[in-house]
């Protein structure tokens, strides 16, 4: 805990909580994680439900800390955002993801598309479009094979979101709205945005067979996507029943444990035929 000194300046009292110390240690370790080669990516297949065809992968970041083991993103992305490390991390992720696409190609595996997540904080500093264009130029990946995922809240909470999104669109990359349905996106906004894809949040898919509200929302999002001419992909598909439900209601794209967990790059080479419904 912070205490105020006699002269009015602040210092960390010896009673500083264990949690505070722990956070500082984590912060210091995270700052060095890239240079120490502790950051890596997993890739999760995105598939066409009716054919099982691989249409793309989503890159998901991991931190392999010698002290902590493999740390999941929900434990370090918010920290990276707080300490101003997310730009560096985000650029590393994008570069690595694009490079991996080229590597797979050299190994004879054609992955049509790669999806990469962007953090709201990456929109706050400088031109994100310039960063993306630089990475594409350096790696040689065709912009059309890159899809950037931003959450609804990023779009609604970033003042110049539309300008940034337009800049990204101008480079030729695809844009997806992640976790769709959980934020408070205005449909008017959606109409203005040059996005191509809506990702239905996992929370709606989870209870599809038991919760009629979740079913209704899922169907509504699929319909909305259709009317706006967007492609719709469902995340968190874990069962054949969920896949069948989606297909029946006109959503033919899915991602989830039913098809594959996020995997290391070499595992995707062995990824051949995936499940067909039923
Ligand atoms: P997200 O973008 O919504 O990513 C999907 C998350 O759902 C991933 O968790 C994935 O492993 C998990 N998932 C996929 N299929 C299933 C399923 O069938 N069932 C269940 N229960 N979970 C499933 P992960 O990898 O732990 O990532 C969590 C979040 O961390 C991501 O959510 C994303 O918001 C963030 N994240 C991951 N990588 C990055 C990154 O490179 N940059 C940024 N800014 N955020 C990232
Ligand atoms: Ca995502
Ligand atoms: Ca998501
Ligand atoms: Ca989600």
Automatic annotation (TrEMBL):
Position of the signal peptide: none
EAL domain span: 23-276
Keyword terms of this UniProt record: Membrane, Transmembrane, Transmembrane helix
Name of protein: EAL domain-containing protein
């Amino acid at each position: 805990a912070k205490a105020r000194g006699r002269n009015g300046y602040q210092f960390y009292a010896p009673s500083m909580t264990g949690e505070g110390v722990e956070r500082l240690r984590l912060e210091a370790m995270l700052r060095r994680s890239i240079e120490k080669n502790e950051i890596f990516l997993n890739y999760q297949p995105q598939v066409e439900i009716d054919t099982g065809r691989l249409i793309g992968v989503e890159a998901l970041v991991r931190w392999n800390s010698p002290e902590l083991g493999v740390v999941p993103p929900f434990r370090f992305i918010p920290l990276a955002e707080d300490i101003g490390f997310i730009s560096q991390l985000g650029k590393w992720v994008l570069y690595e993801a694009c490079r991996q696409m080229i590597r797979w190609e050299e190994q004879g595996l054609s992955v049509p598309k790669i999806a990469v997540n962007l953090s709201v904080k990456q929109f706050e500093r400088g031109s994100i479009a310039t960063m993306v264009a630089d990475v594409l130029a350096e790696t040689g990946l065709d912009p059309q094979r890159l899809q950037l995922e931003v959450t609804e809240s990023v779009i609604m909470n970033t003042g110049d979101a539309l300008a940034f999104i337009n800049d990204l669109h101008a480079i030729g990359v695809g844009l997806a709205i992640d976790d769709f349905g959980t934020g408070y996106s205005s449909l008017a906004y959606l109409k203005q945005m040059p996005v191509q894809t809506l990702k239905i949040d996992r929370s709606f898919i989870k209870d599809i067979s038991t919760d009629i509200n979740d079913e209704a929302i899922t169907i509504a999002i699929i319909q909305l996507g259709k009317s706006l001419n967007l492609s719709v992909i469902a995340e968190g598909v874990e069962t054949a029943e969920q896949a069948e439900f989606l297909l029946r209601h006109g959503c033919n794209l899915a991602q989830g444990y039913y098809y594959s967990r996020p995997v290391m790059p070499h595992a995707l080479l062995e990824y051949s035929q995936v499940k067909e419904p039923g």
